[in-house]
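Give me the fold.
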Amino acid sequence: MAEVHAEMVGSVLEVVVAEGDVVGGNDVLIILESMKMEIPVVTEEPGVVSKIEVAEGDVVQEGDLIAVIDHV
């Protein structure tokens, strides 16, 4: 299991994946908007998205849990 955390403060512009989706390394999970820039949040390891902890429009703080990826 791998947890994906926000690396900066921002608002969730788009949730790209859904729970149950299979992702590879470096796949985009969500897109954050911070200071008028779009920042993709990517996976570091392949697996299955078991939990998405954010929704579009949410504001995340640095360190907030974004998603949980289960290894396959």
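The beta strands are 2-5, 10-15, 22-23, 28-34, 37-42, 47-52, 59-60, 65-70.
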